Amino acid sequence: MNDAIPSPDALDALEARLEELLAACPAGISEHELLKALRREHPLFAGFNAREPLNLFRGHYLLFHVLYRLRDRLARERRGRLAIDPLRIALEPAGIEPSERSAALAPGWPDLADWYADLRRLTIVTAAEVGEWLHQFHAARQASERRQAALAVLELRDPVDATAIRRQYRRLAMRHHPDRGGDGQRLREIHAALAALAGGRAGLARFRG
Q1: Collapsing DSSP states into helix, strand and coil, what is residue 29?
Q2: Rounded Cα–Cα distance for residues 58 and 182 (Å)
Q3: d(CA 165, CA 117)
Q4: In the prediction, which pLDDT does 89 show?
Q5: Burial class, 196, CB count within 10 angstroms (exposed 0-12 / middle 13-18 / buried 19+)
Q6: Residue 16 and residue 7: Cα distance in Å, rounded?
Q7: Quick one: CA dihedral 143, 149, 150, 151, positive or negative?
Q8: Which end of the chain has less neighbouring CB within 10 Å, N or C?
Q9: Angle between helices 53-76 and 31-41 (to 10 degrees)
Q10: Which residue from 115, 16, 24, 114 is spatially nearest to 74, judged by alpha carbons?
């Protein structure tokens, strides 16, 4: 894909085609699958290449720009709502709450309509910026995965605050302490989990309170 901003007529045509594609997928469709479909059939996505970061950004940005346009139009026309998140994009009847499946797949996906409103980003965002965003995204995902793994060791899961983590840590540490007949390896795992949640040894004493 190039950095040209599509014409108003081209955007209108893409919006209409997206509505047709989504209507044909009542259970919803992922962004990945939708981009694959557009690459096969739509001229605006003819050069889309998900393996090239800047190209991937442009395809993603154009798609979400038009999805938010479609969502707003459907709301104005009282013809239902459009659920938008990367794992599930779906047309839903007006007034329906977000589906359990949607909430489970992408909890808390924010409304980013304002950010996707300015198509000039197709021309001004650089490959270096996209590379940095991808780095930040992967770092955040890895941090989230580490947190979830540490919480699992403590037999917890989000949402949970520091107070609850400390309380659970103390309970498990007491239960598994070798002096009480517990498992020393399990206790070391509990200590390591707390250290991971505290951000390393530097924050461990403060986190323990």
Answers
A1: strand
A2: 55
A3: 40
A4: 97
A5: middle
A6: 14
A7: positive
A8: C
A9: 100
A10: 16
113 with 82: CB under 8 angstroms? no
Instruction: Report residue 166 as tokens.
Output: 């400390």
Largest CA distance in the chain: 75
pLDDT of 102: 42
Tokens of 164: 């609850």
Angle at 14 between CA 9 and CA 19, to 5 degrees: 130
Computed on alpha carbons and rounded to an integer, the radius of gyration of the chain in Å comes to 23
HEC readout, 67-95: HHHHHHHHHHCCCCEEEEECCEEEEECCC
Helix axes 184-198, 201-208, angle to 10 degrees: 100
Give me the long-range contacts of 187-194 (CB less than 8 A, separation at least 24).
189/153, 190/153, 190/154, 192/150, 192/153, 193/149, 193/150, 193/151, 193/153, 193/154, 193/169, 194/150, 194/154, 194/165, 194/169
d(CA 209, CA 204): 9
162-206 residue pLDDT tens: 999 999 999 999 999 999 898 999 999 999 999 999 875 555 655
Query: Residue 32, Cβ neighbours under 10 Å: how many?
Result: 11
Which pLDDT score, from 0 to 100, does residue 148 have?
Answer: 96
- Give residue-wise pLDDT tens across range 29-38: 999 999 999 9
Cα dihedral 98→101→105→109 (10° resolution):
0
